[in-house]
Amino acid sequence: MTSGPPYQTSPALDAALARWERHARPGLPQAGYSLSRLAGRTRYGIYRFPEQIPVLEPDEHILRMAPSPDGARIAVQLADTADEDAVLGIVDAATGELHRYPEIRCRYDEVLWQADSSRLEVAASGSGRLVDLDPASGERRESGLPHGGRVRLFRGGRRGLAAQSRPGRPTELIDRATLRTLGTFPGIVRVLPCGDALLVQDGTGLQALHVDSATVRWRWADPDIRITSLAAHGDDVLIAGVREGRSVLLRLVEGRVVEHRPVRCGGEPAVATSVAYDTGTFHALVEGPTLPPRPVAAEDLLTGRAAAPQRTDPARTTRLTVPADDGAEVTVVLTSPKDAEGPAPLILTCYGGFGVPSLPEFEPTVPAWTEHGGRYAIAQIRGGGEHGTAWRRAGRGHNKQRGIADLAAAARGLVDAGLTRADLLVLAGASHGGVIVTACALADPGLCAGVVSTAAPLDLLNLDAHPLGRRWIGEFGDPGTAEGRARLEAVSPLSRAENLAPGIGPPAFLGIVLDEDSRVAADDTDRLVTALRRKGGTAELWRAPRTGHGGNHLDSLHRLGATILGFAEQATGSGVPLPTTPAAPPGTRCPDETERA
What is the set of domains in the chain, with CATH numbers? Predict the structure, then answer.
């Protein structure tokens, strides 16, 4: 295990990365406040919108905020580290005074305020308790949550709603005032008040329910659209979604689509990452690969009136398609220097799992890399949420190899198009994407010069070793059956590394594990590095300090991004030579490494 970053960026590239990282990360308004990171700051805080007047600028990580209806107080979930284990806090919005409740442990849990702002409730998943709190006096009442299930609270009705789910059963939506079940659903993503109805996003589409009668007022679903964000006011519903690999905005009235528009900015693809209704209007957060996020009026996007920002980056973003080996078309979103000609160092990334779409969002490493002559590409492979339900299912479970093959096709297509060469190509992926890129690179060692995996479960035969591993069986397959185990062994990155034929030199590998990761353990990556070194490959393992699977402070993000760019520079020959690593296993692990598994 390398104690410090094993790869250093060139000074000019590091400076470019730092410059792009200084851009603000604004949030959308919520009851007149936003959760944002101001330009030049390293941490997120809570600010009045749109003036950006500070309310709270803590040292901790803010997982979530929930202002009271009167705006006098804000419930926050604060984590000391990046492990996503937070405690509830109450902020006095006038003074910024913060009172923490360390016994109330949360993890992105919804907070339900009473209409008069006198009390709040939270189903605190970390504590396993339903908490009813008077923020003025600190008095609270608690009761236990169902064992083995999950409870989430939402606004709606007289006393709010509860979504109760248990493994293997439909999710129930309950009116807490009457204790009546309003409906059962395969799953519930979110519930919003919508005029005199409730808007339920159930994973397949939307339903508007009457609270009193529990009857369905209208339904809307489109199997080709993945909903990524949702807002409602009166009978109007604004959807940010993905269709045919592009970010789109839709407006619904009474369940009918009345406006539908792809999101573009300055003539290039852009992404509406979230939407909200506040301060009397619908808002959207818009960004692109080299376009820092900014809030805009959603109406301006829907009508095409949104002013294009002044661009300072010499880059352009385009879309191309490449044929997969079964004839399907795989979309690749490519960002290149405007004057680029011929093959250039290229970082190719993907996600390809859990129906999550890979979109051209703002990422400071992209403009930093393109400023120095590199290209950056996103492959929208099967298993992701870019092209509808069928596309997602085509790369899930026993079809996982399909997404790996799609990534290989994207890599070869970029080479065939003269945009890069194999010796200039680096595959990079995080979490599920780390599984895909590593499996792809090891299936065809001549495909690329290097591969970076960050926070990925690389031994698919041992998912139980990870804190959340049991939840991933539906995505990868069940190693508990003979058929499932055989399929997983065929695609598992660790199995591929251990079974590399003698004399086949694998691409350079950088395995990054996160010091404060509460989802993915480090042992898989350690073992894969060991296997590659035994095969004579160049492989490094690095534990990124003060970094987790969720939100991270900017100093940690800079260290992480700079290390990946440094690896890409060196693997493609645009930096200093790659280090020579011994053929022996990595050094002694940190004492807590196996404990975290």
Answer: 315-596 (3.40.50.1820)
